[in-house]
Amino acid sequence: xxxxxxxxxxxxxxxxxxxxxxxxxxxxxxxxxxxxxxxxxxxxxxxxxxxxxxxxxxxxxxxxxxxxxxxxxxxxxxxxxxxxxxxxxxxxxxxxxxxxxxxxxxxxxxxxxxxxxxxxxxxxxxxxxxxxxxxxxxxxxxxxxxxxxxxxxxxxxxxxxxxxxxxxxxxxxxxxxxxxxxxxxxxxxxxxxxxxxxxxxxxxxxxxxxxxxxxxxxxxxxxxxxxxxxxxxxxxxxxxxxxxxxxxxxxxxxxxxxxxxxxxxxxxxxxxxxxxxxxxxxxxxxxxxxxxxxxxxxxxxxxxxxxxxxxxxxxxxxxxxxxxxxxxxxxxxxxxxxxxxxxxxxxxxxxxxxxxxxxxxxxxxxx
Length: 367
What we know:
Layout: E1 5-8, H1 10-24, E2 28-31, H2 34-39, H3 42-51, E3 56-59, H4 62-70, E4 76-79, H5 88-93, E5 97-100, H6 103-115, E6 120-125, H7 140-147, E7 153-159, H8 171-189, E8 196-200, H9 202-207, E9 215-218, H10 229-235, E10 241-246, E11 249-253, E12 271-276, E13 293-296, E14 299-304, E15 312-317, E16 326-333, E17 336-338, H11 340-347, H12 351-356, E18 364-366
Parallel strand pairs: 1-18, 2-9, 3-4, 4-5, 5-6, 6-7, 7-8, 8-9
Antiparallel strand pairs: 1-10, 10-16, 11-12, 12-15, 13-14, 14-15, 16-17
């Protein structure tokens, strides 16, 4: 096994799920495990969540659900991104719940399901203002009236997605939810009913749990993060991933010596440079060089030069650092810590991008 590993704290995952269940009140939690469970490992994370009584789990694409099914998962799986004509066989072969927005695709799904003598559960996606997925609200009633006539199709759920649920100003989110509620009322008054009604992601669950829905789609919060650190602190979330490696070499450089590619770092004095086998080929972004720190022996040290595909370089000065010492890139060591917020802030990004970038070649160890 590589010296670079990602340690996944199972107890923290269970803690975060419990925190979100408390916040969600009457809503059931749909854990979202898209993008390889936000970089934490879709198969193992899903197994843990199922053991914690997660009845329905969300993914982005049918292929992700197939990976879960092939690992032995038999529970409900909802595919958030509306499918295409190329996915209909997968939805049927693996008994997946589909998000729908295109009636022609729904007809093909109906044909596929009917030919297999089965029924596929689908969720109608309403576009309330994000303008990415879903149908316009004024199309919903006609869509539903036609959809319920299709063989092999059970219009099982209805959803929308918020564009700014994490924002302090909740005006636009409330407008979206009010519009969603009006569409839902129109459909219900026409005789349509849904088992699952969902609109809220992690931040939405925190800010709008008083809305009358029965399912909340929680992703990033389960892994210990939110869009902003104050939100995760408010929820008492705990990051579940620790990214660690080891020093594999130490070089001594003099003043004027270069370190790494492209002459991006020139030493201003004699100092020691530690080499660690973690690079952008692992998903540790190249842009982080000369901007962030790691932890060795409970102290912070800067990452210098250009981050390579497979390695990075750390300025350890004249400190007592030796080959074989542990290096923490995300996590705690002694009194010091580095988290995905620190890396995201250095990139002008969000924690999602940090964890989802971590590649398959970093072994995940579940503790």
